[in-house]
Automatic annotation (TrEMBL):
<keyword id="KW-1003">Cell membrane</keyword>
<feature type="domain" description="ABC transporter">
    <location>
        <begin position="16"/>
        <end position="260"/>
    </location>
</feature>
<keyword id="KW-0547">Nucleotide-binding</keyword>
<keyword id="KW-1278">Translocase</keyword>
<keyword id="KW-0472">Membrane</keyword>
<keyword id="KW-0067">ATP-binding</keyword>
<dbReference type="Pfam" id="PF00005">
    <property type="entry name" value="ABC_tran"/>
</dbReference>
<keyword id="KW-0813">Transport</keyword>
<protein>
    <submittedName>
        <fullName>Phosphonate transport system ATP-binding protein</fullName>
    </submittedName>
</protein>
<dbReference type="InterPro" id="IPR012693">
    <property type="entry name" value="ABC_transpr_PhnC"/>
</dbReference>
<dbReference type="GO" id="GO:0016887">
    <property type="term" value="F:ATP hydrolysis activity"/>
</dbReference>
<dbReference type="GO" id="GO:0015416">
    <property type="term" value="F:ABC-type phosphonate transporter activity"/>
</dbReference>
<dbReference type="InterPro" id="IPR027417">
    <property type="entry name" value="P-loop_NTPase"/>
</dbReference>
<dbReference type="InterPro" id="IPR003439">
    <property type="entry name" value="ABC_transporter-like_ATP-bd"/>
</dbReference>
<dbReference type="GO" id="GO:0016020">
    <property type="term" value="C:membrane"/>
</dbReference>
<dbReference type="InterPro" id="IPR050086">
    <property type="entry name" value="MetN_ABC_transporter-like"/>
</dbReference>
<dbReference type="InterPro" id="IPR017871">
    <property type="entry name" value="ABC_transporter-like_CS"/>
</dbReference>
Amino acid sequence: MTVSQFPDPKSGAVTIRFSDVSKHFPPDVVALNDVSFDVRAGEVVVLLGHSGSGKSTLLRQVDGLQRASSGTVSVLGADVGSMRGARARALRRRVGFVFQQFELVGGLTVLENVCTGALGRLRGPRLGLLSYPRSVRREALGQLERVGLAAQAFQRADTLSGGQQQRAAVARALVQRPEILLADEPVASLDPESAAQVMRLIREISVEQGLTVLCSLHQLDLALSWGDRIIGLRSGEVVLDAPSVGLSRESAMEVYTQPAMRSVLTAAG
Ligand SMILES: Nc1ncnc2c1ncn2[C@@H]1O[C@H](COP(=O)(O)OP(=O)(O)OP(=O)(O)O)[C@@H](O)[C@H]1O
Protein backbone atom coordinates (compact mmCIF):
# COMPACT_ATOMS: atom_id res chain seq x y z
CA MET A 1 0.00 0.00 0.00
CA THR A 2 1.29 3.48 -0.78
CA VAL A 3 0.25 6.75 0.78
CA SER A 4 -1.41 7.87 -2.43
CA GLN A 5 -3.87 4.96 -2.18
CA PHE A 6 -5.20 6.14 1.18
CA PRO A 7 -8.73 7.59 1.18
CA ASP A 8 -9.18 11.33 1.62
CA PRO A 9 -9.32 11.74 5.41
CA LYS A 10 -10.71 15.27 5.31
CA SER A 11 -14.29 14.18 4.73
CA GLY A 12 -14.88 12.72 8.21
CA ALA A 13 -16.46 14.44 11.21
CA VAL A 14 -14.18 16.17 13.70
CA THR A 15 -13.41 13.64 16.45
CA ILE A 16 -10.70 15.55 18.35
CA ARG A 17 -10.52 19.33 18.66
CA PHE A 18 -7.85 21.23 20.58
CA SER A 19 -8.75 24.90 21.01
CA ASP A 20 -6.01 27.12 22.48
CA VAL A 21 -4.88 24.36 24.83
CA SER A 22 -2.06 25.01 27.29
CA LYS A 23 -0.75 22.69 29.96
CA HIS A 24 1.51 23.93 32.75
CA PHE A 25 3.25 21.88 35.39
CA PRO A 26 4.36 23.67 38.55
CA PRO A 27 6.50 25.51 39.13
CA ASP A 28 7.29 26.70 35.60
CA VAL A 29 7.06 23.95 32.93
CA VAL A 30 4.98 24.87 29.89
CA ALA A 31 4.36 21.45 28.33
CA LEU A 32 1.75 22.68 25.82
CA ASN A 33 1.42 26.28 24.71
CA ASP A 34 -1.73 27.47 22.95
CA VAL A 35 -2.21 24.33 20.85
CA SER A 36 -5.08 24.23 18.35
CA PHE A 37 -5.93 21.61 15.73
CA ASP A 38 -8.74 19.31 14.58
CA VAL A 39 -8.52 15.62 13.80
CA ARG A 40 -11.19 14.06 11.61
CA ALA A 41 -12.66 10.56 11.78
CA GLY A 42 -10.40 8.05 10.10
CA GLU A 43 -7.33 10.29 10.02
CA VAL A 44 -3.95 8.94 11.10
CA VAL A 45 -2.12 11.88 12.64
CA VAL A 46 1.48 11.53 13.73
CA LEU A 47 2.99 13.75 16.40
CA LEU A 48 6.66 14.49 15.87
CA GLY A 49 9.04 16.39 18.11
CA HIS A 50 12.06 16.23 20.34
CA SER A 51 11.94 14.44 23.64
CA GLY A 52 10.13 16.79 26.02
CA SER A 53 8.31 18.69 23.25
CA GLY A 54 4.92 17.75 24.70
CA LYS A 55 3.76 14.73 22.67
CA SER A 56 2.80 12.51 25.62
CA THR A 57 1.20 15.43 27.42
CA LEU A 58 -0.91 16.14 24.35
CA LEU A 59 -2.04 12.49 24.10
CA ARG A 60 -2.98 12.44 27.78
CA GLN A 61 -5.34 15.38 27.27
CA VAL A 62 -7.38 13.35 24.76
CA ASP A 63 -8.57 10.62 27.11
CA GLY A 64 -8.67 12.93 30.11
CA LEU A 65 -5.73 11.32 31.92
CA GLN A 66 -4.60 14.92 32.38
CA ARG A 67 -6.59 18.15 32.25
CA ALA A 68 -5.58 21.22 30.29
CA SER A 69 -4.57 24.27 32.32
CA SER A 70 -6.46 26.43 29.82
CA GLY A 71 -8.28 25.99 26.53
CA THR A 72 -10.68 23.25 25.49
CA VAL A 73 -10.16 19.65 24.42
CA SER A 74 -13.22 18.23 22.71
CA VAL A 75 -13.33 14.50 21.98
CA LEU A 76 -16.18 12.79 20.13
CA GLY A 77 -18.24 15.92 20.66
CA ALA A 78 -17.70 16.17 24.43
CA ASP A 79 -15.63 18.66 26.42
CA VAL A 80 -13.08 16.42 28.18
CA GLY A 81 -12.25 19.06 30.81
CA SER A 82 -15.80 19.18 32.14
CA MET A 83 -16.23 15.40 32.41
CA ARG A 84 -16.04 13.62 35.74
CA GLY A 85 -16.84 10.16 37.11
CA ALA A 86 -19.01 7.88 35.00
CA ARG A 87 -19.08 10.24 32.02
CA ALA A 88 -15.28 10.45 31.97
CA ARG A 89 -15.00 6.65 32.22
CA ALA A 90 -17.55 6.23 29.41
CA LEU A 91 -15.52 8.51 27.16
CA ARG A 92 -12.28 6.71 28.08
CA ARG A 93 -13.84 3.43 26.94
CA ARG A 94 -14.22 4.92 23.47
CA VAL A 95 -10.52 5.77 23.34
CA GLY A 96 -7.94 2.98 23.13
CA PHE A 97 -4.31 3.49 24.14
CA VAL A 98 -1.17 1.67 22.99
CA PHE A 99 2.06 2.33 24.87
CA GLN A 100 5.74 2.00 24.10
CA GLN A 101 6.22 -0.81 26.61
CA PHE A 102 3.14 -2.84 25.52
CA GLU A 103 2.03 -3.32 29.15
CA LEU A 104 0.92 -6.91 28.68
CA VAL A 105 0.80 -9.20 31.72
CA GLY A 106 3.72 -11.49 30.96
CA GLY A 107 2.48 -14.50 32.93
CA LEU A 108 -0.92 -14.61 31.22
CA THR A 109 -1.65 -16.07 27.83
CA VAL A 110 -1.74 -13.72 24.87
CA LEU A 111 -5.47 -14.42 24.48
CA GLU A 112 -6.29 -13.53 28.09
CA ASN A 113 -4.31 -10.30 27.74
CA VAL A 114 -6.36 -9.42 24.68
CA CYS A 115 -9.61 -10.28 26.49
CA THR A 116 -8.78 -7.66 29.13
CA GLY A 117 -9.53 -5.06 26.45
CA ALA A 118 -13.21 -5.84 27.07
CA LEU A 119 -13.07 -5.20 30.84
CA GLY A 120 -14.48 -1.69 30.49
CA ARG A 121 -17.81 -3.06 29.27
CA LEU A 122 -17.99 -6.11 31.55
CA ARG A 123 -19.25 -6.05 35.12
CA GLY A 124 -17.04 -7.29 37.94
CA PRO A 125 -13.48 -8.61 38.01
CA ARG A 126 -12.26 -11.49 35.83
CA LEU A 127 -9.75 -14.14 36.73
CA GLY A 128 -8.66 -16.63 34.09
CA LEU A 129 -9.55 -16.95 30.45
CA LEU A 130 -12.75 -18.90 31.10
CA SER A 131 -14.13 -16.10 33.28
CA TYR A 132 -14.62 -14.04 30.11
CA PRO A 133 -17.83 -14.55 28.14
CA ARG A 134 -17.42 -16.81 25.13
CA SER A 135 -18.29 -13.88 22.84
CA VAL A 136 -15.34 -11.90 24.21
CA ARG A 137 -12.97 -14.84 23.80
CA ARG A 138 -14.17 -15.25 20.23
CA GLU A 139 -13.74 -11.55 19.50
CA ALA A 140 -10.27 -11.58 21.05
CA LEU A 141 -9.26 -14.56 18.91
CA GLY A 142 -10.58 -12.73 15.86
CA GLN A 143 -8.46 -9.70 16.69
CA LEU A 144 -5.42 -11.91 17.24
CA GLU A 145 -6.02 -13.36 13.79
CA ARG A 146 -6.28 -9.80 12.45
CA VAL A 147 -2.85 -8.92 13.81
CA GLY A 148 -1.33 -12.22 12.68
CA LEU A 149 -0.98 -13.85 16.09
CA ALA A 150 -3.67 -16.55 16.14
CA ALA A 151 -1.00 -19.26 16.44
CA GLN A 152 0.41 -17.60 19.58
CA ALA A 153 -2.95 -17.17 21.37
CA PHE A 154 -2.20 -19.70 24.11
CA GLN A 155 1.45 -18.78 24.66
CA ARG A 156 2.49 -16.74 27.67
CA ALA A 157 2.72 -13.09 26.61
CA ASP A 158 6.32 -12.84 27.83
CA THR A 159 7.42 -15.47 25.32
CA LEU A 160 6.56 -13.19 22.37
CA SER A 161 9.05 -10.96 20.58
CA GLY A 162 8.72 -7.20 21.06
CA GLY A 163 6.98 -6.75 17.71
CA GLN A 164 4.57 -9.57 18.50
CA GLN A 165 3.84 -8.10 21.94
CA GLN A 166 3.00 -4.77 20.39
CA ARG A 167 0.70 -6.44 17.87
CA ALA A 168 -1.00 -8.21 20.78
CA ALA A 169 -1.35 -4.83 22.52
CA VAL A 170 -3.02 -3.47 19.36
CA ALA A 171 -5.40 -6.47 19.38
CA ARG A 172 -6.20 -5.75 23.04
CA ALA A 173 -6.96 -2.12 22.21
CA LEU A 174 -9.25 -3.23 19.37
CA VAL A 175 -11.23 -5.54 21.67
CA GLN A 176 -12.09 -2.36 23.54
CA ARG A 177 -13.87 -1.32 20.27
CA PRO A 178 -12.45 2.20 20.37
CA GLU A 179 -13.40 5.03 18.05
CA ILE A 180 -10.05 6.70 18.64
CA LEU A 181 -6.69 4.99 19.06
CA LEU A 182 -3.92 6.85 20.86
CA ALA A 183 -0.41 5.46 20.53
CA ASP A 184 2.52 6.86 22.51
CA GLU A 185 5.71 5.91 20.69
CA PRO A 186 4.32 2.45 19.92
CA VAL A 187 7.38 1.32 17.97
CA ALA A 188 10.18 3.01 19.93
CA SER A 189 11.53 -0.24 21.33
CA LEU A 190 11.19 -2.31 18.16
CA ASP A 191 13.65 -3.19 15.40
CA PRO A 192 13.01 -1.37 12.09
CA GLU A 193 11.20 -4.28 10.43
CA SER A 194 8.86 -4.89 13.39
CA ALA A 195 8.31 -1.14 13.72
CA ALA A 196 7.19 -0.85 10.09
CA GLN A 197 4.98 -3.92 10.51
CA VAL A 198 3.20 -2.44 13.54
CA MET A 199 2.73 0.96 11.85
CA ARG A 200 1.39 -0.72 8.70
CA LEU A 201 -1.04 -2.68 10.85
CA ILE A 202 -2.29 0.43 12.66
CA ARG A 203 -2.68 2.19 9.30
CA GLU A 204 -4.60 -0.71 7.74
CA ILE A 205 -6.94 -1.02 10.72
CA SER A 206 -7.63 2.70 10.59
CA VAL A 207 -8.55 2.43 6.91
CA GLU A 208 -10.68 -0.70 7.43
CA GLN A 209 -12.59 0.58 10.44
CA GLY A 210 -12.51 4.36 10.03
CA LEU A 211 -10.55 4.47 13.28
CA THR A 212 -9.06 7.86 14.18
CA VAL A 213 -5.41 7.49 15.19
CA LEU A 214 -3.20 9.96 17.04
CA CYS A 215 0.28 8.55 17.38
CA SER A 216 3.59 9.96 18.61
CA LEU A 217 6.70 8.77 16.82
CA HIS A 218 10.40 9.53 16.73
CA GLN A 219 10.94 7.92 13.32
CA LEU A 220 10.43 10.50 10.60
CA ASP A 221 10.34 7.97 7.77
CA LEU A 222 7.60 5.96 9.44
CA ALA A 223 5.66 9.15 10.09
CA LEU A 224 5.84 10.14 6.42
CA SER A 225 5.02 6.60 5.23
CA TRP A 226 2.08 5.79 7.49
CA GLY A 227 0.59 9.09 8.67
CA ASP A 228 -2.01 11.09 6.76
CA ARG A 229 -0.77 14.14 8.47
CA ILE A 230 2.12 15.30 10.62
CA ILE A 231 1.81 17.63 13.58
CA GLY A 232 5.22 18.85 14.74
CA LEU A 233 5.69 20.06 18.31
CA ARG A 234 8.54 22.10 19.66
CA SER A 235 8.64 23.32 23.25
CA GLY A 236 4.91 22.64 23.51
CA GLU A 237 4.00 24.65 20.40
CA VAL A 238 2.69 23.38 17.08
CA VAL A 239 5.35 24.28 14.53
CA LEU A 240 4.13 22.10 11.66
CA ASP A 241 0.70 20.83 10.67
CA ALA A 242 0.69 19.39 7.18
CA PRO A 243 -0.49 16.41 5.14
CA SER A 244 2.30 13.87 4.76
CA VAL A 245 1.65 13.56 1.04
CA GLY A 246 3.88 16.15 -0.57
CA LEU A 247 5.77 16.89 2.65
CA SER A 248 9.49 16.52 2.11
CA ARG A 249 11.78 14.92 4.64
CA GLU A 250 13.67 18.20 4.86
CA SER A 251 10.53 20.21 5.72
CA ALA A 252 9.51 17.67 8.35
CA MET A 253 13.04 17.73 9.79
CA GLU A 254 12.59 21.43 10.55
CA VAL A 255 10.46 20.35 13.51
CA TYR A 256 13.73 19.26 15.07
CA THR A 257 16.02 21.98 13.80
CA GLN A 258 14.19 25.30 13.59
CA PRO A 259 12.97 27.45 16.48
CA ALA A 260 9.23 27.53 17.08
CA MET A 261 7.78 29.88 14.46
CA ARG A 262 4.15 30.40 13.64
CA SER A 263 5.23 31.29 10.09
CA VAL A 264 6.17 27.68 9.24
CA LEU A 265 2.67 26.50 10.01
CA THR A 266 0.86 24.91 7.11
CA ALA A 267 -2.82 24.39 7.71
CA ALA A 268 -3.94 20.83 6.98
CA GLY A 269 -7.34 21.97 5.87
N1 LIG B 1 3.74 15.21 35.47
C1 LIG B 1 4.65 16.12 35.10
N2 LIG B 1 5.15 17.00 36.00
C2 LIG B 1 6.05 17.94 35.65
N3 LIG B 1 6.51 18.09 34.38
C3 LIG B 1 6.06 17.24 33.45
C4 LIG B 1 5.11 16.22 33.75
N4 LIG B 1 4.83 15.53 32.60
C5 LIG B 1 5.58 16.11 31.64
N5 LIG B 1 6.31 17.11 32.14
C6 LIG B 1 7.21 18.00 31.39
O1 LIG B 1 6.48 18.49 30.29
C7 LIG B 1 7.31 18.57 29.13
C8 LIG B 1 6.70 17.72 28.02
O2 LIG B 1 6.81 16.35 28.39
P1 LIG B 1 6.22 15.17 27.49
O3 LIG B 1 6.41 13.90 28.24
O4 LIG B 1 4.87 15.51 27.06
O5 LIG B 1 7.21 15.22 26.24
P2 LIG B 1 7.38 14.17 25.05
O6 LIG B 1 7.47 14.96 23.79
O7 LIG B 1 6.32 13.13 25.13
O8 LIG B 1 8.78 13.51 25.38
P3 LIG B 1 9.33 12.02 25.02
O9 LIG B 1 9.48 11.98 23.53
O10 LIG B 1 10.62 11.95 25.75
O11 LIG B 1 8.31 11.06 25.55
C9 LIG B 1 8.68 18.10 29.56
O12 LIG B 1 9.43 19.24 29.92
C10 LIG B 1 8.40 17.27 30.79
O13 LIG B 1 9.50 17.26 31.67
